[in-house]
Design a protein that fits this description.
This protein is an alpha/beta fold. It has 16 helices and 14 strands. Strands 5-6-7-8-10-12-13-14 form an 8-stranded parallel β-barrel, surrounded by 4 helices. Bound molecules: D-xylulose and cobalt (II) ion.
């Protein structure tokens, strides 16, 4: 395939930490073994189509700034423009040595005037994407339907007060699932951008949540019908665009899935900026998902804590990436999921090559995070500290509580003879923070 969008950018190769070449990885060495597994299989990097190909740099106060030479010709929002973007995207994937990517239906192909027309546009671009997947050996990490941008979803999609909007959203998800299967996608994501409310004065919360539950059950039924084997993921986010989203954080999603008997069909796709909007750290959200056996995939980005909205920045903080990788390694690593850069270059980083700088930075930061996390695990002091901290549960009264062989009556008798709880030890937070720093 013709590769002309970035003629001056070579395939990005690993050159090691001493390299000063901006077009090289300093830490991401795809085949290097970490804990006996290649880095590329640990990290399973993925580029998103929406920010990378469709991001214009516009914000609520200003127009787009992004310079994208391949978008300069032809009509904006046309199928021709959508076609021109496909080879550019796959050139980026290949040059970054990025094995996966992700899309929304409507960022690959434009909205048509009718659903039929939209589906035709989508089919056309999927055909092209399929050829490029084959030619480059890249794979689809997940597909999803964009059920939040169009005015028809002003009141929500699956949770709209208008049943026609629900039906339209169902038709869109059905088609997006068909196309995900067509491209051998590894998974399928649900992010409920408009599934929530802005005021409770006009909202029947229970009815909306019931509708969302019914919608997801229909998706499960359809998945079985078409024989799609990959997992479904829910992506928690508390707000923006809505004031409150029903999938607000990992715990709320897990509760929703249990309440509507959907737990076995879904895992979570955890995004850093969404975690911080929910008032949590990314590691908290990962630990919550992991504890429920539901950690599926991550949207790797970061927010700006001073701004407080979903800035979707590329993740370059080594504490963040090390903490993520520590939890991910602890729970056995990704299976179908991956490290998906749901991130966009800054409005000021408008040049085409910034797309490469940004992804190289994210990939190197996660590669370092992986190496740091593996070194902390090999050292063993952190895990040993935590294990030791809970040793009172390994024998004696602790073991009996965990086994469920004692109740309040027995515990009262035990406590009456105890005198006082005199065995507490320091939690040593500062010591552990410094220990973590040894590896950064
Ligand atoms: C929005 C967001 C979405 C989902 C997919 O904040 O993260 O792009 O990842 O719909
Ligand atoms: Co996301």
């Amino acid at each position: 395939m013709a590769k002309q969008a970035f003629p001056n950018i070579p395939k990005i190769q690993y050159e090691g930490p001493g390299s000063r070449n901006p077009w090289a990885f300093k830490h991401y060495n795809p085949d290097e073994l970490i804990e006996g597994k290649a880095m590329k299989d640990h990290l399973r990097f993925s580029v998103v189509y929406w920010h990378t190909m469709c991001g214009s740099g516009a914000d609520m106060f200003g127009w787009g700034t992004a310079d994208r030479p391949w978008d300069r010709i032809g009509k904006p929002g046309s199928v021709d423009q959508a076609k021109r973007r496909v080879p550019v995207f796959f050139e980026i994937l290949e040059k970054l040595q990025c094995p996966f990517y992700a899309w929304h239906d409507r960022d690959l192909a434009p909205h048509g005037k009718t659903l039929r027309e939209s589906n035709e546009y989508f089919d056309t671009i999927i055909d092209l994407v399929k050829q490029h997947q084959k030619a480059t050996g890249t794979r689809l990490l997940w597909g999803t339907a964009q059920n939040f941008a169009h005015p028809r979803y002003m009141h929500g999609a699956a949770t709209s007060c208008n049943a026609d909007a629900f039906a339209f959203a169902a038709a869109q998800v059905k088609k997006a699932m068909d196309m995900t299967r067509e491209l051998n996608g590894e998974g399928y994501v649900f992010w409920g951008g408009r599934e929530g409310y802005t005021t409770l004065l006009n909202t029947n919360l229970k009815r909306e949540m019931d509708h969302l539950g019914a919608f997801l059950h229909m998706a499960v039924d359809y998945k079985k019908k078409i024989g799609f084997k990959g997992p479904f993921y829910i992506e928690p986010k508390p707000k923006e665009p809505t004031k409150h989203q029903y999938d607000s954080d990992a715990a709320a999603c897990l509760n929703f899935l249990r309440e509507y008997d959907l737990m076995e069909h879904f895992k979570l796709n955890i995004e850093t900026n969404h975690a911080t909007l929910a008032g949590h750290t990314m590691q908290h959200e990962l630990e919550v998902a992991s504890a429920a056996g539901a950690l599926g995939s991550i949207d790797a980005n970061t927010g700006d804590l001073l701004l407080g909205w979903d800035t979707d920045q590329f993740p370059t903080d080594l504490y963040l990436t090390s903490q993520c990788m520590l939890t991910i390694l602890k729970c056995g690593g990704f299976t179908t999921g991956g490290t998906n850069f749901d991130a966009k270059v800054r409005r000021e980083s408008f040049a085409p090559e910034d797309l490469f700088h940004a992804h190289i930075a994210g990939m190197d930061s996660f590669a370092r995070g992986l190496k740091i996390a593996a070194a902390i695990r090999k050292d063993g002091r952190l895990a040993e500290f935590v294990r030791n901290r809970y040793r009172s549960w390994d024998s004696g009264i602790g073991a009996r509580i965990e086994k469920g062989t004692v109740g309040f009556k027995e515990l009262e008798a035990y406590a009456l003879d105890l005198g006082e709880v005199s065995s507490n030890e320091s939690g040593r937070q500062e010591y552990l923070e410094n220990l973590f720093n040894e590896f950064i």
